Amino acid sequence: MPEHTLKFPELAPSGHHKMNWVTGHMPILGQIRRRYEKDKPLLGQRIAISLHLEAKTAVLAELLHIGGADVAITSSNPLTAQDDVAAALSERGVQVHAFRGASDQEFDQLHQRVLDIEPTLIIDDGGELTERLHGSRSALAAQVLGGAEETTTGVLRLKALARQGRLTYPMILVNDADMKHLFDNRYGTGQSTWDGIIRSTNLVVAGKTVVVAGYGWCGRGVADRARGLGARVIVTEVNPVRANEALMDGHQVMTMEQAALLGDYFITVTGNTGVVRQEHFNAMKDGAILANAGHFDVEVDVRALKQLAVATRPGRSSEVTGYEMPDGRVLWLLAEGRLVNLAAGDGHPAEIMDLTFALQALSLEDLLEHPREAGVYPVSPAVDAWVASIRLQSLGITIDELTPEQTAYLGQS
């Protein structure tokens, strides 16, 4: 039996209930699972995974194990591991090293334990495994056949490694696939971010001003859901094209310095550091709520916020902390500035992650069937199209096909 690093193994029954629920709402993975049970396409592989360890992720890890692989998993964020799900997954044949609330040192140790499996394939989120495989565990990198990256932040880190000529194995950029970023980033992040904010605060959104920093696909989703909840939306951007998009989508566009005076909610979705910082805290109104939906906890400058505060106070839930400013204003920070949709919620809906995790599993298969040199690669168009088609099929939706005349007219014959 595999070894595990868990805090509360007795919580497994709750985790099994969660996994069973989402399994029933992930038909694409269900179809892949039926094939994996029979064909075992991953037999002999050792897969290391760093993803937010909640129920949908657990279903993916179990699927890869059913496909024949030895699988070890940890969480890609110290606050996004769900202890009951981790315990349940450990009872389903997957090696689990994860618990909620890990310190920085513990977080690194958990990743090191996952890499002890000596992976031949990886699934990464934010480049956590890749960073170690090119640093403290570089001796293991030579046997890695490749992997898949989940996030915008991770893609940026991989492209930087590739430009520097330092990336030692091929990585498929799942985040950039149409069936990922158009749905997971936009609709998944849009809904789950607000799920986390509303669950932890229990406050109304309608009639308030929401400031969204960043108008990539994730920012679009957050802004669109805010407007749907009745908020006035301000977008801050550094990219003039995206700023024009936000403007023509009906949002106000201004600098964070200007928006700081107006916002009731501030949500960062940029993948960058120091987006909301000291000069902005000094200008915010009493009661402003700060949340981050980007991968790392650096977008809201939490260190500066703590240095400014003269006192802290508890909020409605454990995910809400109030920082009292010298003039008596209180700014409320959610989930310690970490990913609010997972640290204060359950992450993206199951139907959304069904798309992304199907791309992950199929991309690993594609790497085995079509080996590549070290570098970054897009998801195969055939894989993307298959996931899209199966999604429609699962909903009972059919679409038109080109006639022979139309195919010839478009020059595709």
TrEMBL record:
Binding residues annotated for NAD(+), in chain numbering: 151-153, 216-221, 237, 293-295, 341, 348
Signal sequence interval, chain numbering: none
Keywords annotated in UniProt: Hydrolase, NAD, One-carbon metabolism
One of the GO biological process terms: one-carbon metabolic process
Ranges in a coiled coil: none
Enzyme class (EC, first level): hydrolase
PANTHER family per record: ADENOSYLHOMOCYSTEINASE (PTHR23420:SF0)
Record-given protein name: Adenosylhomocysteinase
